[in-house]
Amino acid sequence: MMRRAFPLLVLLLVAGALMPLPAAAQTRSPAAQTPPPAAQTPPPLPPEKDYIIGPEDLLEIQVWGNKDLNQQVFVRPDGRTSLPLVGEIAVAGKSVQQLQDHLTNVYEKTVKGAVVTVIVKEIRSRPVYFIGGFGKPGVMQLTRDLTLLQAISINGGVLPNADGEKGFLLRGDKRIPIDFNRLVQRGDMSQNPKLEPGDSIVVPLADAVYVNGEVKAPGAVKYTGDLTILKALTLVGGLTPLAAPGRVDIVRGSSEKKERIRVDVDKMMRSPDEYPDARLQPNDIIFVPQRLF
User: Fold this and answer.
1) What is the full DSSP assignment across 15-44?
2) Tell me: the pLDDT tens digits for 106-131?
3) Distance in angstroms (rounded) separating the CA atoms of residues 179 and 226
4) Rounded to two decimals, what is the model's pTM?
5) Same domain, 193 and 215
């Protein structure tokens, strides 16, 4: 019995030696097991460290090792502020990193192992002013690089009743014309300057004509030099089935002296040569009455 089992045992041992080991158990060279270390590059400074502090910014100063020295300070219009153990210090024009390093050197003289952290709590020194026909007129702080198109998209865009062709940008003593219609509607990048702190962007509100009564979408229509009564009625969707086109009134003039002009829109549409379209003026009011039954 033992003689029969012995050759079988030998065959099993030989077969086991010839079989490949599982991948996890195979021996690999040290180079294959451990990839060469990648080159270590220092992480870039956060953007805040490169930020240049300006007047009216709000800063938080933290002194590790002495919490009594932690302060929130306002940068005065003269670019200076006051700190305990430091006194008056000019901070405007310095980067966050430069101010941090300077204060660390100063506080180390009185606080052992002091480490100073400077945090910009509020940016108030980079205003851009939006005036006139914008969705959100007012002040925007330029916390990052923005073009005019990017900024107005954040600021609610240009209103439909704005006179986009007469927009402009004030930069110092320069007045730069901006055609917002070309910028927004046609994507004309020649009208898309990069904004700078202190810029004022102005788009005047256009004169309007007001259409009321039996029209599909009563309301204001932007006035243009070639606006006529038929064009204005088209812009508000046209007349309703209940309109009386033969008795349309144009109310014109100031509140002290108003003039009422009766026009027959039906005849204007049927016989334009005999009844020419009426040209409108700014602030005209068009009233379309309901027809009588």
Assistant:
1) HHHHSPPPGGGS---HHHHSPPPPPP-PPP
2) 998 888 888 999 999 999 999 999 99
3) 19
4) 0.63
5) no
